[in-house]
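User: Please fill in residues for this 333-position structure.
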């Protein structure tokens, strides 16, 4: 629509100029209409050509030559058409011949301007498309890495659980059967959360409880857990299965090197625009080095948080008075 308006405005402007030179309205309108329409076709040709081919850097002299050739062809066709259809004005033929240099430079200017605008426009479009593809590639790479991190959480836990079930089958078959059902429920819940969609805190804690129930079968009375949260935080969102590797890390460094009862504490609270979850476990400083023994669990969680939120300060660990504390912060968008 804008292009049509520009063409009409150009025809009217040129018609007014030719009327000023004393030509009839019919002659002025025919000259303007033919010249502008043919020039519009030339501009379309060069614009469409530059959509598929653009000169390389520092080779714009080639484009200037192309514009000159196109302007010359436009001038020749325009002169032939006007000389053929305007026959009733004896002074027009002389005017047309004398105006050829001016018409050429005006045509070259307009065609060259169209070429510059086309180069800038299509270059920006290519840059936008490149950025779009780059963003899509980064998203796919990030999703692939997140998926890989998620997959690394399961195998060793599954192997440990199957070994425990094997050990229980002979001596305590009922507990082995119960553990199989718990493991089945846990894995079924894991498959439902493979799409990386955020889940509510209460759903995450319910799924975490399945994991803890399995671990309690393995460790018996030695493992005790305390889970608490503010009621206002129940609907807050966090990445699925974010807490399991943190709690697994707490169990590993809380129970593997001790013989007594160990209590794992989990507490969630809302602070400004963040959901903050604290996991604490006791440890024996003589046999455990929690500062250096975080393993894949915490490093994987930290990497996952960085991929999801672009921050590296969302996981903190401290050890004080035989208590190892892990604090994870989940921004609430």
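Assistant: Residues filled in for all 333 positions:
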């Amino acid at each position: 629509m804008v292009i049509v308006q520009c063409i009409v405005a150009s025809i009217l402007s040129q018609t007014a100029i030719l009327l000023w030179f004393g030509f009839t309205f019919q002659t002025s309108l025919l000259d303007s209409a033919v010249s502008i329409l043919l020039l519009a076709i030339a501009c379309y040709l060069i614009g469409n050509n530059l959509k598929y081919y653009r000169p390389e850097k520092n080779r714009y002299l080639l484009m200037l030559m192309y514009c000159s050739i196109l302007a010359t062809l436009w001038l020749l066709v325009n002169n032939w058409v006007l000389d053929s259809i305007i026959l009733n004005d004896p002074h027009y033929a002389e005017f047309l011949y004398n105006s050829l240099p001016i018409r050429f430079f005006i045509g070259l200017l307009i065609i060259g301007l169209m070429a510059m605008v086309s180069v800038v426009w299509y270059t920006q479009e290519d840059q936008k498309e490149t950025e779009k593809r780059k963003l899509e590639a980064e998203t796919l790479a990030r999703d692939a890495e997140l998926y890989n991190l998620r997959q690394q959480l399961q195998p060793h836990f599954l192997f440990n659980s199957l070994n425990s079930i094997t050990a229980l089958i002979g001596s305590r078959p009922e507990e082995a059967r119960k553990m199989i059902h718990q493991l089945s429920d846990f894995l079924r819940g894991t498959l439902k959360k493979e799409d990386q969609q955020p889940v509510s805190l209460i759903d995450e804690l319910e799924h975490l409880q399945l994991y803890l129930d399995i671990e309690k079968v393995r460790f018996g009375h030695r493992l005790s857990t305390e889970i608490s949260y503010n009621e206002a935080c129940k609907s807050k969102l966090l990445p699925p299965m974010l807490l399991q590797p943190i709690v697994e890390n707490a169990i590993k460094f809380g129970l593997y090197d001790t013989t007594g009862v160990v209590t794992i504490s989990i507490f969630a609270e809302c602070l400004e625009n963040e959901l903050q979850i604290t996991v604490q476990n006791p440890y024996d400083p003589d046999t455990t080095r929690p500062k250096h023994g975080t393993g894949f669990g915490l490093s994987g969680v930290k990497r996952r948080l960085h991929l999801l939120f672009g921050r590296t300060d969302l996981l903190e660990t401290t050890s004080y008075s035989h208590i190892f504390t892990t604090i994870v912060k989940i921004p609430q968008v």
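For context: The beta strands are 199-200, 223-229, 237-238, 262-271, 274-282, 315-320, 323-331.
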